[in-house]
Design brief:
Distance between the termini: 76 Å
Strand order of the largest sheet: 1-2
Number of helices: 3
Radius of gyration: 27 Å
Helix content: 25-40%
Largest sheet: 2 strands, antiparallel
Length: 72
């Protein structure tokens, strides 16, 4: 019986119910791979794919102040 659910899942997702309430879904491997990313992107990859990539920021000029003497 379970093998039939798996065969049916290759055609379309199969919803599993418990006492009439939807609890789980059996998907084909192809559908699962579409939903689940293979790996997490690195921080660099996230920055590279940002829609803000290339935007120039206007930052105020940095003030140069004399150093303070502190005791350690």
């Amino acid at each position: 019986m379970f093998s039939e659910v798996i065969r049916s899942a290759t055609r379309e997702p199969q919803i599993i119910t418990v006492r009439g309430e939807e609890k789980a879904v059996v998907l084909s491997m192809n559908e699962y791979k579409k939903l689940k990313p293979l790996k997490k992107p690195t921080l660099f990859e996230l920055f590279q794919s940002s829609p803000l990539r290339g935007v120039e920021l206007e930052l105020p000029e940095r003030r140069i102040e004399p150093m303070r003497n502190i005791e350690l």
